[in-house]
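ok here's the first one, seq then struct tokens
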Amino acid sequence: MFQKGYRPRESSQHATMADFIKQTLGKNHQNLATLFDQMWRKRNRLVYEAANLVGEKETKQALALAHDFVELITTLINKETT
């Protein structure tokens, strides 16, 4: 996102990222924006509302998704810079 010159708005970082994913990565990755939005909402509830909202299984799934996302973005950046 930063490589392409996009900067998140101060109070809307998660929304900016979701919009960027939808517009930039195309239809094949639309579900990423939805999944990140769901995780962001749960994170907010966890931080501001209740403990034990996210279990171990869901935590592992979120970490795996984040890992896959980093690999995808790294691959896309490498393709653009070569």
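and now the second one, same deal
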Amino acid sequence: MRLPLSRSLLVAAAMAAPACGGGGGSPTTPNPTPTPNAFVITVVRQAGAQSFDPNPATAGGRSVVFRNIDTVVHRVVLNDGSIDTGDIAPGASSRVVQMPMVGTNYHCSLHPAMVGQVSAEGGAPPPACTGIYCD
């Protein structure tokens, strides 16, 4: 009896091994279902300030999802580093993130020329952008 049981365990372990990852590719963000009240910012293409739509987004203090409709992976990071979406595969969306009430500036860490802004809560202008990710 031990021989068939050990073979069964060996076969089960071999079948499970490929599902554990190890494919060597970059991790991608799963395509979560956005919450009904999440504000969607679309990652359009690599085009500087026209890379995101809308830009600036009136989403200060709101829950936001970044949806990638481009053909390449993107990774949105707030300029101050407080939020990092992780890699967002083509056709996928980020997890829901909470934008600062005071507004913010952000960029794609894989394509740093891609820049965006979020207006402050209530629609006040976004904060001034300073640093290397500003155009």
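notes on #2: Strands lie at 39-43, 52-53, 63-68, 76-78, 97-98, 104-108, 115-118. The domain at 27-123 is CATH 2.60.40.420 (Immunoglobulin-like).
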